[in-house]
Automatic annotation (TrEMBL), chain A:
Keywords: Cell inner membrane, Cell membrane, Membrane, Transmembrane, Transmembrane helix, Transport. The chain crosses the membrane at residues 20-44, 65-86, 98-118, 148-168, 200-218. GO terms for molecular function: transmembrane transporter activity. NCBIfam families: HEQRo_perm_3TM. This is ABC transporter permease subunit. The lineage of its organism: Bacteria, Pseudomonadati, Pseudomonadota, Betaproteobacteria, Neisseriales. Its main location: membrane. Belongs to the binding-protein-dependent transport system permease family. HisMQ subfamily. InterPro entries: AA_ABC_transptr_permease_3TM (IPR010065), ArtM/GltK/GlnP/TcyL/YhdX-like (IPR043429), MetI-like (IPR000515), MetI-like_sf (IPR035906). It is a multi-pass membrane protein.
Length: 231, 289
């Protein structure tokens, strides 16, 4: 085993891990926000909204994430190239980067998968608690914001921890469209040093540590609400 | 409907140094002639089942009205129509003289015409449920101040002061920072009663408040309700506790298959009912107890 390259490539690895974390945070927060909309949409009594949410979830969950990333990057991305107006605009530096296509694909993926999870969580909140909020005079939106959604999220914390770890690992697909995330950097090091395993092993260890960190953060959140296993 | 401040006296509540709940339920004086709850010819059906078949009902400020009857007789539905948790198919509901606006939607269902109006009315109707329904992600105190702060826009300090007075009243002051999951059923229900009182309602609605409790916990909850009744709190109570209903009620109504079969003072209904069904029901309940 040869780890002498660590000194030379250390800075690059840090940048790679930062890119991975950026993807995680962007797709995590935006995806979660969208997932909340999808979750409520799935429960909507408006047939069109319910249909739209269901179709979206089916589309996202029914196709491989890698295919979605390719469609975004090679499909949508190359479409943009044909608009000279876009190519000259300030947006172009962003549109040229694989990063934003991956971020978008991951966001939609989270929205699809977590949306379905949130739907289940919303259903799991006892109806009486919502009724109590309404009966005491809370308008519907306030009830959703203060009672329904927070309750669902607390119920779902263990599941959401798992989804976050899944997302962390999905970000590695970014390397397939030339994004220098953690895995992308590892591959680069492999090519330049002709070492097969060592860079991969180091990055695997970093993913593992990040995953443990996420689990611990969620555990902490769970501890903030001491609920006996009464329900 | 007069604003809340005319029916209650928050100043009294705090300047006296000790909270007295009777201030919360002071009669409205000469201006208030309309019954606090006035229900006219209410009908409600669930599918093929007609649960209320044209029920009329009034409660005056200061009344303690008990609704009794067998399961499925419509008493809970009637109570839930008072604050529109169930929207009746037809009939009128007036709260302090103001009629709840209803309309028919394009599917032919009766729905609320003005939801904000109902939200406003609901803050004047405290509701207590059979299954407590405290919000488990909030502490006891947070459960109490949520609606006063978020809906009634009360200053936080004022809301907390009232909440603590109410918790003391129901004997739960020392648990104010506990989460509901750590309380017994009786304690949860007492907190739920305090939560309903925290909006300073004009009427309290109780939907079988002791039915989900272990027998040894029923007493502590009934005592709180009895104290409220003695303080002059206006309340409508769906209950299977016949002895309790007989003791606290100013008015008792016996429902049978969606109709009010017998109504009168507790004495009339329990000791000298006109209807044979009512007599059988009451006797059966007392023999059981």
């Amino acid at each position: 085993m040869n780890f002498e390259w660590l000194g030379e490539y250390g800075r690059m690895m840090v940048l790679g891990v930062m890119t991975t974390l950026q993807l995680l945070l962007i797709a995590g927060t935006l995806g979660f926000a969208l997932a909340v909309l999808v979750g409520f949409g799935r429960l909507s009594r408006q047939p069109f909204i319910a249909w739209l949410s269901l179709s979206f979830t089916n589309l996202i969950r029914g196709t491989p994430l890698l295919v979605q990333i390719y469609v975004m990057y090679y499909g949508v991305g190359s479409l943009f190239v044909s608009f000279p107006l876009l190519r000259d605009s300030w947006l172009w530096p962003y549109l040229r980067e694989g990063f934003w296509y991956v971020a978008l694909a991951l966001t939609l993926s989270v929205a699809g998968y977590v949306g379905e999870v949130i739907k289940g969580g919303l259903r799991g909140v006892p109806k009486g608690e919502l009724e109590a909020a309404r009966a005491l005079g809370m308008p519907r939106l306030l009830m959703i914001r203060r009672i329904w959604l927070p309750r669902a999220i607390f119920i779902l914390l263990p599941t959401l921890a798992g989804e976050s770890v899944m997302l962390l690992k999905s970000t590695a697909l970014a390397s397939t469209v030339a994004v220098m995330d953690a895995l992308g950097v590892a591959n680069l090091i492999r090519n330049q040093t002709f070492l097969t395993y060592e860079p991969l092993l180091v990055m695997a260890l970093i993913y593992l540590l990040l995953a443990m960190l996420i689990e611990r953060l969620f555990k902490r959140l769970e501890m903030r609400l001491p609920v006996r296993n009464a329900f | 409907m007069p604003p809340c401040s005319t029916t209650i006296c928050p100043v009294l509540l705090f300047t006296q140094g000790r909270a007295s709940l009777s201030d919360t339920f002071m009669p409205q004086g000469a201006a208030a002639v309309a019954p606090i709850i006035d229900i006219r010819n209410l009908r409600k059906r669930f599918g093929a089942q007609e649960v209320l078949k044209g029920v009329s009902f009034t409660a005056q400020t200061g009344d303690v009205v008990s609704l009794i009857g067998a399961s499925g007789s419509g008493k809970s539905t009637l109570l839930r129509c008072m604050n529109m948790l169930e929207v009746p198919d037809s009939g009128q509901v007036l709260i302090a003289g103001e009629e709840v606006a209803l309309k028919t939607n394009r599917h032919g269902q009766t729905v609320l015409a003005d939801p904000p109006q109902v939200d406003r009315m609901r803050t004047r109707l405290g509701m207590v449920f059979q299954s407590f329904n405290l919000w488990p992600h909030m502490t006891v105190l947070e459960n109490l101040i949520e609606v006063p702060i978020r809906v009634l826009r009360q200053p936080r300090g004022e809301a907390i002061a009232l909440a603590e007075a109410l918790l003391a009243k129901v004997g739960m002051a020392e648990k104010r920072h506990s989460y509901p999951a750590f309380l017994s059923g009786g304690q949860q229900q007492r907190v739920a009663i305090a939560r309903a009182l925290a909006t300073r309602p004009s009427v309290m609605l109780f939907d079988e408040p002791t039915s989900a409790l272990d027998p040894e916990l029923v007493g502590e909850v009934l005592k709180v309700i009895r104290d409220l009744a003695q303080d002059g709190c206006t309340m409508v109570l769906v209950t299977h506790e016949m002895a309790f209903a007989r003791d606290v009620s100013s008015k008792v109504m016996f429902l049978h298959q969606g109709c009010i079969e017998e109504a009168g003072t507790a004495r009339q209904v329990f000791e000298n009912p006109g209807s044979e069904r009512c007599r059988q029901f009451v006797n059966a309940q007392f023999c059981r107890a």
